[in-house]
Amino acid sequence: MYTLGHRNPQGIAIHPVTGELWQSEHGPRGGDEINRIAAGANYGWPTITYGIEYSGQPVGSGIQQQDGLQQPVYYWDPVISPSGMTFYSGSRVPEWENNLFIGALSGEHIARLTIENNRVTGEERLLASEGQRFRDITQGTDDALYAITDAGRLYRIDRD
Ligand SMILES: [Ca+2]
């Protein structure tokens, strides 16, 4: 086993500069996470979470932090249901360099996260007007991004 304490992992991607593994997962209500993965670490579920049960009750003892358990890099409240994700390492859109792009299912958009020193410094929502559940996203050999939806659509995304 490499890591533990994940709830509902959905996406995985390698940071183009650090080479580290990043991961998305669905939390309970208010607890969707992005995590930076380190071998042997425990990511906390079900002991710590920023979410609550869908019934409105706390999860376990309702704590968000505990020694020895990893904090997420980022979490969403309200949730967006993050799914597949990729870092951008292309040259077509320079301002996207090393940003993290994540498909959102219930959120129905592509989340673009800017990251500095392993912390999220900004979030933009792309294609939010499309009304699509975005399932996965990857970078093409043309340095555009390609995203697929549960409805069977494929989107090509760039900033031309
Ligand atoms: Ca966690």
Specify Rg, calculated over alpha carbons: 16 Å
**Which series of helices and strands comes N to C?**
EEEEEEEEEEE
Oligomer: single chain
Lateral arrangement of strands in the main beta sheet: 1-2-3-4
Small ligands present? calcium ion
User: Biggest β-sheet: count, sense, barrel?
Assistant: 4 strands, antiparallel
Question: How many β strands by DSSP?
Answer: 11
CATH homologous superfamily grouping: TolB, C-terminal domain
- Class inferred from helices and paired strands: mainly beta
What is the helix fraction of residues, given as a range?
Answer: under 10%
Separation of the first and last Cα atoms: 43 Å
**Could you name the CATH class?**
Mainly Beta
Number of DSSP helices? Answer: 0
CATH topology: Neuraminidase
| Overall mean pLDDT | 97
User: Which overall shape is indicated by the principal axes computed on the Cα atoms?
Assistant: globular
Total number of domains: 1
Q: State the CATH architecture.
A: 6 Propeller
Spans of at least 5 consecutive residues whose pLDDT stays below 50 are none
What fraction strand? Answer: 35-45%
